[in-house]
Give the backbone structure.
Amino acid sequence: MQSIMINNCDQRISLLQKRFSQAKIKYTEDQIHKFLRYYDLLIETNKVVNLTSITDFDDVISLHFVDSISILNFIDVDRFNSIIDIGTGAGFPGIPLKIMCPDLNITLLDSLKKRCTFLEFVIKELELEKACVLHSRAEDIGHDDAHRNHYDLCVSRAVASISILSEYCLPLLRIGGTMVLYKSKRASEEIIEAENALNILGARLLNKVDLNLKTSNDEYDRSLVVVSKIKETPVKYPRKAGKPEKSPL
């Protein structure tokens, strides 16, 4: 039994290394083992808390891990001092980014307590320093002096339009800060729809990076939408919970 388990571990390490290499992502042995441990914690907790519908090891690597850290090929994340991940869920992209960039000061924001408890456990188990979990809503911390105009980089893989996510994220950024949104192939349409929101909230589009990521049986498209905050966001934003979704800017 022991030899089978070791072999399985070796196979998982090999597959993880292969997927990272295909994505041109550099890694250390310690980082590989942290990702393996993260996967085990994710799958075990997912039995009692709904964290993800994606559980196959290869698919988790591609659709969660590689997807989360694909930003590292295009943006020097290490130059940012403080980062917040809005609607992090099971920790994506925040935890993978933290594993790859251990010096980051990162805040993981989620509105569900059970997910926050899981994230706190992951941080402890993986011994991730300078990482914290915030159980709250973006609409609330956007008016909290401890968080408003505080962060250098805001990332989000949350399922919402660019207009909605901009209202959540931009109030939290310093002027000159950067927002990176992980979007689908519909990103170009959403960018056009978000022009008014970006103008109102004090931001401008910097770039859209289109990626093609491989899974065990398929490929899928990912767009990274990069936005810069160029002026102060009006104090009335973000609006109260539910308003951004019901009436996007």
Summary: Residues 1-6 have pLDDT under 50 and may be disordered. Residues 211 and 241 are 32 Å apart (CA to CA).
